Structure formats: C-alpha cells, structure tokens
Amino acid sequence: xxxxVERNGRYCVVYSYKDKTGKRRQKWETxxxxxxxxxxxxxxxxRADVGQxxxxxxxxxxxxxxxxxxxxxxxxxxxxxxxxxxxxINNYIVPIIGGDKLENINTRFIEKYYQRLLRTPAxxxxxxxxx
Length: 131
Description:
By secondary structure, this protein is α+β, with helices and mostly antiparallel strands. The chain contains 4 helices and 3 strands.
C-alpha cells in the first residue's frame, strides 16, 4: 500500500511496485498539498486493489510532457491555460528536445536547449496571425 511523507513543506506518496524484470521498486511522487497527495494515495490503493496499477515510466521528454498534461493539465488548468500550455509544449519543447532521454538531462543540456530556444523563431498564432 501507499504511505504519505512530508518533506520540506511538500507531501510525498510512497509506494512499491514490481518492474518488468520482477524486481521490487519504490516510487516517490511529490505534491504541493496534502489534499492532492491523499487523492493520489487513494487512487494508487484503488488501482492496486482492482489490479490496474500503472506506474509512470517516462523515458523521453515527450513521454514526460504527455504524462504531465494527463495527470495535471486536464484537472488543474482552466481551458485557456490548458490550451496555451499544450501549445507551448507542442511548439517549443517536443520538437526540440522531445526525443531526448530523461537520463541525459543536466545543467549543460538545459543551457544548450535554452540557447537553441533563443534562436528559434516564434510560432505564428493561426487565429490572430501574430507571433
């Protein structure tokens, strides 16, 4: 089952699962509020009980962004915020670094991405024709 841990003013949901090789692993998921953490804990326990436990396995930046939008965007963002954030991700993150592996991300990688992003022209908004 899952447990809740408070660390540095944030709340973590900690649970165990078995990876593809059958080895037992521990997963920590961090949330800003206790309410969010309790909600996720209940979801994890319910899915474990019904046999639908799905552990997030992001290997690339694109996978992480898709999972982030699914977990947080649809429930937490207003429609205009959701639309704007998804567009920013699809226009400026996924095409440039979407295929890169998460294990390769470090400060040098982020600096190279930032420099490349500065050279990237703005995407034209189809509704207004403006950048």
